[in-house]
Amino acid sequence: MDTAHVAEGSRVLITAPAGGAGHLAVQIAKASGASVIGMTVPDAEGHVRSLGADEVIDYTTTEFAGRLFVEADRLGLTALATLVTAGKLRRTIAATCPLEHAGEAQSYRAISGKVVLTL
Question: How many Cβ atoms from other residues are within 10 Å of residue 37's Cβ?
């Protein structure tokens, strides 16, 4: 948040906002007071809005350019830990698979969340 200068009044574009890292990024940006724009497919719009996105853009019909760079820093990681402790950051698990089926899990394409391997 410090590194990316995300604060109240910022506008943040998040690509793949329903994915494993993206669904967390939406919540982090919202917790920082930013307005969030998520670029995703129409099937994921409801989920992305439920995470807090203010706008959702269908990337299959809308062209966009640009890159977002984020680097880890102590202050940022401490802020993330605070969000987790306060219950303001929730992860979405799309499916679980036993470790012995890791190959099959690799081909699973989740619209929202992560695929978790269990031991």
Answer: 20
Cα-Cα-Cα-Cα dihedral sign, residues 46, 91, 20, 30: positive
Residue type at position 52: G
What does the alpha-carbon distance between residue 16 and residue 41 come to, in Å, rounded to a whole number? 9
pTM of the model: 0.61
Q: List per-residue pLDDT tens for the chain, 119 residues long.
A: 566 778 898 899 898 898 888 999 999 999 999 999 999 999 999 999 999 999 999 888 876 654 347 556 777 778 878 888 898 887 778 788 888 888 777 676 655 667 888 88
Torsion of CA 24, 42, 95, 49, to 10 degrees: 40
